[in-house]
Structure formats: C-alpha cells, structure tokens
Design a protein that fits this description.
The protein is of the alpha+beta class. Helix content is 25%, strand content 27%. The chain is built from seven helices and 14 strands. The protein is globular.
Length: 254
C-alpha cells in the first residue's frame, strides 16, 4: 500500500503546476492533502475521478484557508471529519479514513508564525489532538497519522537549529510536545528507517531557500506500534515543487 502526504498550499494552484501529472506517475493508493484552500463547490471532482480517485474533503469555513482531504482509489469503510471541537474543526484540520482495521489520517497542525495568539492556539490544539488520538487508539489500533505538523523535532530536521531556536516550528515547547507524543506509542516512520538522513519537506519562498536546501522537515508519517513492522519505505520527494512543501510517500505491507 502506497500512501502520499502533501501540503499543496492551494490545491488549485498545485493543479496548474503539474500535480495531476505527478499523481498519474506515482499512483499512490491514498493521497492525503493539507492546505487545500478551497470550498467543496470549488473542488475539481471530475478531474480526480478520471484519475481513479474517490475524494473526501474537510474544508475550513473561512474561504481560501486551511482544509484537508483524502483522495483514495479504494472506498473507505468509514470517513471521520474533525475531532469534535468547534474552534479547531471550523478550520478544517483533520480527516480520517478507515480501511478494515487500518486508519489513515490527514492532519494540518496550526502554524504559530503569525503571532502569540496563533502560537497559543497551536499549543492548545496540539494537546487536544493528542488527547483525541490517544482516545482513538482505544478502538483503532493501527493508525497512520500523516500531514503537516508544523514542527521540526530535532536539530537534524532543520537547516539552522541555532538561529531558529526561537522561531515557531522549532520552539522548545513544540519539540517537547512531539517528544511526549512519540513517547505515547507513536513512531516517526522516516526517522525510524533513516536515523541519520538530513532531509527536508518545506522551504521558504524567500532567500532562494529551496535552491540552497535551507529547509525544515515539517511533514511526517506517524504510526502506531502495530504498524511499525509493516513499514517498507518512506521517501521525501524534494524535487517535486508544486508547493513550498514537497510530497512524502510511505509504503507499507497491506
């Protein structure tokens, strides 16, 4: 089973840059999207149907903002939208698809870069998200939680850990949250398979950051313990540039 996650930073823009051609080439069984930035009536349903995908969207109430989606070749047994907390769910940040005993989640954690208020919102979200996931694990044991976490966990995950130590995305409290989350029985699949690799999934549009590979690893496949033995590979496709992020692909034994 091949699962891809991609923060497209505007799905309509990514389509014009070549996303459909990439999808035809890669043929993931499931594609998890973040920052779709559209409403349901703006979604090009027929385009993705022609490519063989069923589409499930969870859009933000605010137009042109946030939003997650799951595109899948196989119809899920069940799709869950949101985590049941209105303040977060109105921003369209969480969608889950169940396939038998396996669940695939597309999540878009908030960014705190716009100021203290949003940073506080981010930290409250992270705690609420963790509580929700731990409760979910009581009934859904095989979870693949992918998406844009907006956090670099360790110095290896960011190009300049010293100068970014006080920037949102690499703050001590954010990194400590991720350490706590992982300690609850979750595995960062890329770091598990490639403990020494310094690869990134996001680059600023400023300062020629991508060309100089001054990036951040913000996009993850977190998996529960029963899924770890099923891991085959995780690939960060840094050469794919339809967004300021790049796709990450997970292959698991199905």
């Amino acid at each position: 089973m091949k699962i891809a996650t991609y923060n497209v930073n505007g799905l309509r823009a990514a389509i014009t840059k070549g996303l459909p051609e990439w999808l035809i080439k890669e043929q993931p069984d499931v594609l998890c999207l973040q920052e779709t930035k559209l409403q349901s009536d703006q979604y090009p349903l027929s385009l993705f149907e022609e490519l063989g995908y069923h589409s499930y969207l969870y859009c933000a109430q605010k137009k042109g903002y946030s939003g997650v989606a799951i595109l899948t070749k196989q119809k899920p047994d069940h799709v869950e939208y949101g985590i049941g907390i209105e303040a977060y769910d109105q921003e369209g940040r969480f969608i889950r698809a169940d396939y038998g005993d396996l669940s695939v989640i597309s999540v878009y954690h908030p960014s705190g870069t716009s100021g203290e208020e949003r940073q506080a919102f981010k930290m409250f979200w992270l705690d609420a998200f963790q509580q929700y996931i731990l409760k979910l694990c009581e009934t859904r044991h095989n979870l693949i939680i992918c998406g844009d976490y907006n956090i670099c966990h360790e110095p290896i995950d960011i190009h300049d850990p010293i100068r970014n130590a006080k920037n949102s995305g690499f703050l001590p409290e954010e990194r400590e949250w991720m350490t706590r989350f992982l300690s609850e029985g979750f595995t960062d699949s890329f770091r598990y398979l490639y403990p020494e690799n310094q690869e990134y999934t996001w680059w600023s549009y400023r300062f020629n950051a991508r060309a100089n590979n001054k990036g951040w690893r913000l996009d993850y496949f977190m998996v529960t313990e029963p899924v770890v033995p099923l891991l085959k590979d995780v690939t960060i496709q840094s050469e794919v540039s339809y967004s300021d992020h790049c796709p990450v692909i997970l292959e698991v034994q199905s």
